[in-house]
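Quick check before the chapter quiz. The format below is the same one you will see on the exam, so make sure you can read both the input and the output lines.
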Amino acid sequence: MRNPRFGEANIGAVAGAVMGAIGGLFALGIAPAIMSHNAALLVGTPILGVLSLLVCGPIGWILGGQLGPRLGQAFNNERAEAAGGILGGLIPVILAALWGWYMVTSH
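Here is the expected output.
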């Protein structure tokens, strides 16, 4: 099994960084947009969105760079490596969206 180095550049890392950065940009606005039925709230907090982008992008790079090559080798396919990177990039986005949902709902 191929064990990529921490932070190594590969297809999975690039896919994870792209998914993490773009998803992180909108992750915190998903809950308010759904609850108020207003799509404009996806970008209602631009500063927090950019901070989430700056956090989720590098985390997506790291997780996608670790998960992608392992899936790529298991299935012997570069598309599986990219899919693993996308899954790795979705992890911080989902966590940010869940945190945003927690902050919007009443405690």
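If your answer matched, good. The CA atoms of residues 25 and 50 lie 6 Å apart.
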